[in-house]
Amino acid sequence: MEPQIIATTPFEGQRPGTSGLRKKVRVFQQPHYLENFVQAILDTRPELVGGTLVVGGDGRYYNREAVQTILRMAAANGVARVLVGRGGLLSTPAASCIVRKHHAEGAIVLSASHNPGGPDADFGIKFNAANGGPAPESMTSAIHARTQEIERYLTLDSTAVDLDRIATLTLGATCIEVIDPVADYAELMASLFDFDAIAGLFASGGFRMRFDAMHAITGPYALEILENRLGAEAGTVLNAEALPDFGGGHPDPNLTHAAALVAMTRGADGLDFAAASDGDGDRNMILGRDCFVTPSDSLAILAANAHLTPGYRQGIRGVARSMPTSQAADRVAEALGVEHFETPTGWKFFGNLLDAGRITLCGEESFGTGSDHLREKDGLWAVLFWLNLLAARRQSVAEIVTEHWRRFGRDYYTRHDYEGVASEGAEGLMAALREQLPTLPGQQLGARRVAQADDFAYTDPIDGGRAEHQGIRIRFEDGARIVYRLSGTGTEGATLRVYIERFEPDPTGHQLDPQEALGELIATAREFAGIEPRTGRAAPDVIT
Length: 544
Ligand code: VG1
Ligand code: CO
Hints:
Layout: E1 4-7, E2 21-24, H1 25-28, H2 33-44, E3 52-57, H3 63-76, E4 81-89, H4 92-101, E5 106-110, E6 122-128, H5 137-147, E7 152-155, E8 167-171, E9 174-179, H6 183-192, H7 195-203, E10 209-212, H8 218-229, E11 237-238, H9 259-263, E12 273-276, E13 285-288, E14 291-293, H10 295-305, E15 318-322, H11 328-336, E16 339-343, H12 351-355, E17 361-364, E18 368-371, H13 379-393, H14 397-408, E19 410-421, H15 423-436, E20 444-445, E21 448-455, E22 458-459, E23 466-467, E24 472-476, E25 481-486, E26 494-504, H16 514-517, H17 519-529, H18 531-535, E27 542-543
Parallel strand pairs: 3-4, 3-5, 4-9, 10-11, 10-12, 15-16, 15-17
Antiparallel strand pairs: 1-7, 2-6, 5-6, 8-9, 12-13, 13-14, 17-18, 19-26, 19-27, 20-21, 21-24, 22-23, 24-25, 25-26
Helix pairs in contact: 2-3, 2-5, 7-13, 10-11
The structure holds alpha-D-glucose-1-phosphate-6-vanadate and cobalt (II) ion.
Alpha-D-glucose-1-phosphate-6-vanadate binds at residues 18-19, 113-114, 278, 282-283, 322, 345-347, 364, 366, 368, 487-489, 497.
Cofactor: Mg(2+)
Family: Belongs to the phosphohexose mutase family.
Protein name: phosphoglucomutase (alpha-D-glucose-1,6-bisphosphate-dependent)
């Protein structure tokens, strides 16, 4: 089958954001739009020619069509072998796992993660490199540059590949292997955690758990691992059926979008443990009875207890957190005598530290936690890690959290999101903050004096790569922080994120509601940045 050469012209704005290129489905449906981006990946990653590519997505609307397009283009461009999940499905962590296990040259992952799906909602595409991790800035910049000069793409005039049966097929000269999307991932999880101990917890009869797959990709993974392999009772996995529009919901595991699950953990009859994941399976929310574990605390707690699980029995080498994530993990690293790092938002910045063996665990405040077992954040991994801890420590979630605070102190933390605000207002707000930076140190803001203020810039300790303008950081003399940044994953207007934290060493002050404990700082953050005058918003849309 001869490749067809199709003439095309560049589209503006094919620049990947925090995690790939995310746009409305209708943008992707324009003729040549997806093709241009895929060809830009293939043109800038010559190792794919004659190599192996992993393809799959979170099953959202347009996933199937996009997979077929990518298979034809991969074949036309001389990719030797493509591993594609059955049904075109792969969770983001499973794609990373498969790249590593099968020594692929990279993956194309189709997802807009926690953004809603459906014909009027969002779609996304990203490239992961041979280490299984999101393409670093150098690669995404090259891909973007290529989209700006593209004149042709290659495809085949072929019928659709049957994705619904596990089989090895050929397309032109390319071998297409339709694989079980769950098997490799489930095997990796079994190698890291004490499945017997977790199964024992479920068999004990005294432990009640629910996992909310939010009608997204983790349904099949959670059914196989929690119910089939670990023996959790049928019905443990809620909303297990993956739907192209996620059942009309917002597949974002947080207190707002998973409110029904949160309600099931409340009161004396509440569940012992509950968890949820997002559209593509890389996020996690952890709940106990009357207890929400902030993602920043979760990272710190996993770090402090890693030695209790088989996969991390040797202890951890270091921890990294994204800049806006609370400083709780730093305290654990210091107590363990291991390195800790502060990176810009986005998982791609952890890759080099993981590859170099400098860190074992990493995480973000945005419900992302992961380790060196693969190169993405991993929702079910975090859930299994917590289950392993509950089985090993024989304590409740709340007891583990409270003991952690007693030992390390509590970092009260909250994030306030103002979504879909006018871009000019949001950018004006950030520019005004930036202008004030030089005169901020020493100034009194609300009840505190500013110690340091900057626009966060990061130099990668491994390859020296530089990332600038990663968010405005204001640090007070007592260690409290306010951070402002604009989202790089939205598809409409701008989203302003404000991150607020303060440290409380005294255990008698550990039981407050974070909104209350941070009330003064929250008000200061709003006033100082002029959020209402600049965005017209009197209150945030989402508080986590
Ligand atoms: C958000 C989060 C960030 C995360 C990113 C991708 O980015 O803040 O921590 O890495 O989403 O996660 P932003 O730029 O909108 O703040 V996912 O689960 O959407 O791949
Ligand atoms: Co995600």
